[in-house]
Amino acid sequence: xxxxxxxxxxxxxxxxxxxxxxxxxxxxxxxxxxxxxxxxxxxxxxxxxxxxxxxxxxxxxxxxxxxxxxxxxxxxxxxxxxxxxxxxxxxxxxxxxxxxxxxxxxxxxxxxxxxxxxxxxxxxxxxxxxxxxxxxxxxxxxxxxxxxxxxxxxxxxxxxxxxxxxxxxxxxxxxxxxxxxxxxxxxxxxxxxxxxxxxxxxxxxxxxxxxxxxxxxxxxxxxxxxxxxxxxxxxxxxxxxxxxxxxxxxxxxxxxxxxxxxxxxxxxxxxxxxxxxxxxxxxxxxxxxxxxxxxxxxxxxxxxxxxx
Amino acid sequence: xxxxxxxxxxxxxxxxxxxxxxxxxxxxxxxxxxxxxxxxxxxxxxxxxxxxxxxxxxxxxxxxxxxxxxxxxxxxxxxxxxxxxxxxxxxxxxxxxxxxxxxxxxxxxxxxxxxxxxxxxxxxxxxxxxxxxxxxxxxxxxxxxxxxxxxxxxxxxxxxxxxxxxxxxxxxxxxxxxxxxxxxxxxxxxxxxxxxxxxxxxxxxxxxxxxxxxxxxxxxxxxxxxxxxxxxxxxxxxxxxxxxxxxxxxxxxxxxxxxxxxxxxxxxxxxxxxxxxxxxxxxxxxxxxxxxxxxxxxxxxxxxxxxxxxxxxxxxxxxxxxxxxxxxxxxxxxxxxxxxxxxxxxxxxxxxxxxxxxxxxxxxxxxxxxxxxxxxxxxxxxxxxxxxxxxxxxxxxxxxxxxxxxxxxx
Amino acid sequence: xxxxxxxxxxxxxxxxxxxxxxxxxxxxxxxxxxxxxxxxxxxxxxxxxxxxxxxxxxxxxxxxxxxxxxxxxxxxxxxxxxxxxxxxxxxxxxxxxxxxxxxxxxxxxxxxxxxxxxxxxxxxxxxxxxxxxxxxxxxxxxxxxxxxxxxxxxxxxxxxxxxxxxxxxxxxxxxxxxxxxxxxxxxxxxxxxxxxxxxxxxxxxxxxxxxxxxxxxxxxxxxxxxxxxxxxxxxxxxxxxxxxxxxxxxxxxxxxxxxxxxxxxxxxxxxxxxxxxxxxxxxxxxxxxxxxxxxxxxxxxxxxxxxxxxxxxxxxxxxxxxxxxxxxxxxxxxxxxxxxxxxxxxxxxxxxxxxxxxxxxxxxxxxxxxxxxxxxxxxxxxxxxxxxxxxxxxxxxxxxxxxxxxxxxxxxxxxxxxxxxxxxxxxxxxxxxxxxxxxxxxxxxxxxxxxxxxxxxxxxxxxxxxxxxxxxxxxxxxxxxxxxxxxxxxxxxxxxxxxxxxxxxxxxxxxxxxxxxxxxxxxxxxxxxxxxxxxxxxxxxxxxxxxxxxxxxxxxxxxxxxxxxxxxxxxxxxxxxxxxxxxxxxxxxx
Lengths: 308, 410, 590
Hints:
The complex is a heterotrimer. Chain A is mainly α. Chain A has helices spanning 2-32, 39-57, 60-63, 66-93, 102-122, 153-175, 177-187, 189-194, 199-225, 232-247, 252-272, 280-294; strands at residues 130-131, 140-143, 149-152, 227-228. Chain B folds into two domains: 43-171 and 304-378, Response regulator (Rossmann fold), CATH 3.40.50.2300; 174-299 and 390-406, Rossmann fold. Chain B starts with a helix and ends with a strand. The relative contact order of chain B is 0.13. Chains in contact: A-B, A-C, B-C. Chains A and C meet through helix 5, helix 10 and helix 12 of A and helix 13, helix 18 and helix 20 of C.
């Protein structure tokens, strides 16, 4: 029993991380129907941006206190990721706005490779994993069920921050003028333009929000696992995309649910399915294929649209 | 308007840069490349090197590369091989078997390559050794510990050397694993041990050797698990380990996984020591999360405590390499010197040709050298006869030697 | 049969009025175009004869005759300085002659000179630690790079100011046997050129620190010469002639490819490089069927190469393989292809329900599942992180493919047989591709690519036909995989990661989707460059990523654009056509 509950907890922690990345995927796809492969790298860049800030620009005495270091790292990570996301939209995707579908997808692959390599080449020591400070209460508490369910504080932080940000974002999209503009643009860009909305601004805003969330996720990931590497973006990015599809692409709440499902599939699959943890990632991809083939609109998606 | 201005600004900037860099050069007086005062009229012979120079294991690989470079430079200064200049050609295998194979093919197709130092991983050696053997190129590894590399797949029952050109200055896991088990079970009194490995030739082999001996000594292997060599989140495995309630964890693999694993074990409330083999002995281990009180075995005696290694450590420091010499520095330095020594014997005052290669192999086989790690010689399988091992423990943030000894079967 | 020489463009062009950003400058230079071109050419040659470096670089003399100048040894120029000399002389000669498209040709030559001078100048500056290396330092002067660069730029400026003519179209028809001989000579020259490019700069490594830049410099010179040739319209004409004698050309090209071992590239190392290129070229052609013809984006394609390779490794008798039986190589190839084909059909089956980029994601997921399973040594078939090492070479009778061959006095290096085999394999794969493309099936694929719903409405059974694309593409990759396993002797999951799929896709796109030579060209470029430019290995992938972005931005149809291709990438966007200018190939379906 305690093993099961522990794995549920593991799954929720990993899942909320994925959810945070998935929001960026789902928003961008919702508005310009682009699978932004490079979004995972934005997440990675955010983690390195946060770490660089702590390592090189903030006095160590300040970093030593988590209640200073955490907000600094989160904001710095979000900012760096946001700026990279905006630059990416401006210089790589916008020129291809009206190009055939394959072009932006391949561009996204190029951006992904280029970002990953840029960090590897230019960030000191990035050829190998780099240690990342915990940024929060280190250690864990135990829920006394059976042998005890261990919950790490950084994991709790991950869940709380992710859900809070997702909730805030949903309110933003539902309640504010800009949010309405985003929804309008995603439904029909041309009509939105007729209504006086500047689609370019909305698209930049979408990339900025998605990038910032990914940056936050990157910093949280670092604090949760205590080391970051340049490969982290690609793999988690694919999982996040899976989550976005699972929840119904374009749907923020769906992305969150999708992320949590992914986390649970991984944790429980690794525990109970044949092959053990070595195959936990495989189950995520299996779920992805099944969902895409049999229910491409996801859990929360509306009626099926032709995607060609 | 703005365009003109932009052009003007660019031009001014460019002019500034030009003015700053104008007429500067990096001219060195003694140009022509490291020949010094020796006669290098017969050309250049290349010592190849294969190890991970990028990726997670690069800390070990770069230390090995620098140590080889040091040996080669010293040989050039001392005119070890009359008439020839020695050059180091370092290939990056990224820790993967396939790329190691390609690197070996590349070196093997270059007629100037006389010997190869490397590899780091046993899995990469499996790929590289046969390719080099086919061209009769001596390969000496300072770090491969899997016994099958020198004694064949049936090393326990019917040892049979697969590649006559393959040697190593490191001792094997058939010794290291049991040595670690004796320490952990007998000296530390751990009776319930969880064994984790990364499934690679080195890690899985070491873990199996450890587990067999530990059970023989009366300990229980409470659970066994595998992790991926590139994993970072071990929460699933740790939940399994936690359920088995061990009092120590033995990990067969390398520090990029072992460090975070140790940290996440502690985070999950498992304040039990993690023990590993030579693959986790690196300064990066503690940076990535390795804890105080973790143990590791390493091959050879600690260089810092060997009088014979002092010259190496001093020369390494004097050469000013950016990276530390790391766990295998001294053994690598010795491996390179074995090749150089063999080469000077095989070439003598003659010239190097393909016919010299057999002589080089026998010269290496007959090595009797006083190296940085002690006396070096090889047995009939190409294994080092120096079977010393050292137990290290993390104290004050880095690995400190606890005790050095030779394995005796229990 | 009469020979008609029909230069279509009037050589005495009326004075051109330049507009645009540099219009004023060009108009000012225009009256001196001819003089300018000659001066530029002379300056280029002069630059080549001046010293280039003020001192011997720390890694050894570069260029070999760094301090050479005209007054010491006028015939001693070699390497890139020889290239500049030749380009410069050609510019002077053509400026004096009356040839059609003269200014355009000279501009190409000038670009070549400028590129070579710039490249080597920058390189010497960086390597020599500052501009002192190419100007004056310690009492030595060496202005060769700067003079040659100015010469090249003057040539370009003068040629452009003279007005760029349209590319002439030659309609010469010679007797068939003359054309045959001509083609033979041209292809032989191409062969020598390929060998020269491949081996230029040598193998690299510590003994030869300048390999990379020598290679790049040759490429720069060649691209200048080629752009001049293409400006003259001769390249297009050769293309027309070889199209006229299609079968003959194909046979001669194949023979030329097989003759590569007899050139300077006939060493073990270059044979290995060429064989690796061949493996990826064959795989890229297979991918070209899926992506280029059927328009189905596959992001996990390299998995089929992996499945073929692991299948072959397991049937090779390698000690580490789980199956441990040894079958003849030809049979192994067939089995590998069939196994890969079966997986191809499985991976392709979701195409029945999924389209567009969702399909791309499904294929990516399959690719990741493959890599992850192979990493975990699934069923003991893949060796996991340990790989399957020690795969024996292909043997026919007592002969091993990695032995060297001696024919009379001629000793061919080991690896030649692999090279010959891979050339035949690539030829076979090209043949399959070419026949399929022009068959009923190929037309069905193209119809699906253009508009799946319309194709379906026209009675094409889209489902099975799409799966067939995956199946055939996967089979070709499986064939290449079997070869790959034996050639490299090690098969590890690491060789089949996502990045490899992206690289293959990039090869197809760079070369030109849906065209036969495109995939081969793309694969050659993408797999030769990293081999030749190991000095820049650290930046390889960074440049690769940026290149992908730039290609998509500026030339999404690739180097060789498919004539029949319309949708997907080569858009019918009017802007696109405008950008291409009148010289571009028609993008409309015939």
